[in-house]
Amino acid sequence: MKQLHKQSSVNHRRDEEIPSNQTPPYSPKSLKQPRSLPRSINYLFKEQRLLFILVGILIGSTFFILQPTLSRLGPTEVRSSIPRSFSTDTNTTTTTATISHTQDASGSYSADSNKPFHGKVGRVPVGIGRRRMRIVVTGGAGFVGSHLVDKLIGRGDEVIVIDNFFTGRKENVVHLFGNPRFELIRHDVVEPILLEVDQIYHLACPASPVHYKYNPVKTIKTNVMGTLNMLGLAKRVGARFLLTSTSEVYGDPLQHPQKETYWGNVNPIGERSCYDEGKRTAETLTMDYHRGAGVEVRIARIFNTYGPRMCLDDGRVVSNFVAQAIRKQPMTVYGDGKQTRSFQYVSDLVDGLVALMEGEHVGPFNLGNPGEFTMLELAEVVKETIDPSATIEYKPNTADDPHMRKPDISKAKELLNWEPKISLREGLPLMVSDFRNRILNEDEGKGA
């Protein structure tokens, strides 16, 4: 007890020795202020958090107020500020779905749901209320391509034409210059190109014997490398791809008429093989991208087509006969003239291509007119239309010239609801009128 009493006395004296005005030692911890407001309200006022919250509410309200106005804008207006060469599509919704590819009895592939597929959703059928598409047409300055471009522009789409002008002509599309929905790019499809598009019509390739035999290596490069580049573009941007193949894949057919399931009778090393085998390879690549990468594809096998804007001297029989008859030259028939062909007017073909692109079937589809003519019968129709006094000159037949060519279009009728409407006697005068004007201008240019 004595020790405890002494200790308390010592402590009491120490307290008395400390001056009353001496401040306590410094402590890094700040003294807690008494809370006058709840913690949640203090949190809002610190570091201007309330200001940022109000700004965010204002921005959100503005967006929701303006959203109905923005939704009424078409994709062209929204994307007008995006560079045309390459940009990211911020207005097209992409999705990952699954599809499987089944082949029906007619050889057409259709989509199901078992395999990875990357593509655009919400496609609207052609008609009232369809959204404006941005479409690439390779070879769009050529004969068929320029007519296709006219149809696409006419229905309100944006069209980008890619052409190297080997067989295409600026005159075929000059009437579209100045149209804000038309763009022309001079480019060779054997080199890659980056564009933002919804659909790709791949028509680029020399199609007449005169042109594709002139540079066979270039022809097969266009078919292989050009198709690879366009399929790669379709894969990157999720575009639907349409390949324009040819009836030449059937070679010199042993089946008549030719169905899409017929595999052909071909010469892989002949003079025409650069074109025939090139198109067969292009079809293979197209189906490989479809099955392996989920690219939406369509394949058209085009039979003989005629109409305005054909090259005057491209070696194809209709243009040869018409140009020779107008120039008062003998019409050249190769061989005995008993070879048969079917001829469709270009507008019928364009309707078929659009129906195929907008449909839900991969193909391949024969697009041609089943009306069949021998070369001598065709020459007689040309004589009736242009000059009854025109004469015929016979020459030796060319190598690998097919003896018969006639499409079976029953599958296109059934699945695409398409068939040609214009007969040869109806369409030929329209072509003759165009050829007369061009040959007249050509002669005037030469001073004839």
Automatic annotation (TrEMBL):
Low complexity bias (residue ranges): 88-102
Domain (NAD(P)-binding) ranges: 137-429
Molecular-function GO term, any one: NAD+ binding
Gene3D superfamilies: NAD(P)-binding Rossmann-like Domain
Enzyme nomenclature, EC number: 4.1.1.35
Keywords, comma-separated and alphabetical: Decarboxylase, Golgi apparatus, Lyase, Membrane, NAD, Transmembrane, Transmembrane helix
Membrane topology (UniProt): Single-pass type II membrane protein
Polar residues bias (residue ranges): 1-10, 78-87, 103-113
Protein function: Catalyzes the NAD-dependent decarboxylation of UDP-glucuronic acid to UDP-xylose. Necessary for the biosynthesis of the core tetrasaccharide in glycosaminoglycan biosynthesis.
Protein name: UDP-glucuronate decarboxylase
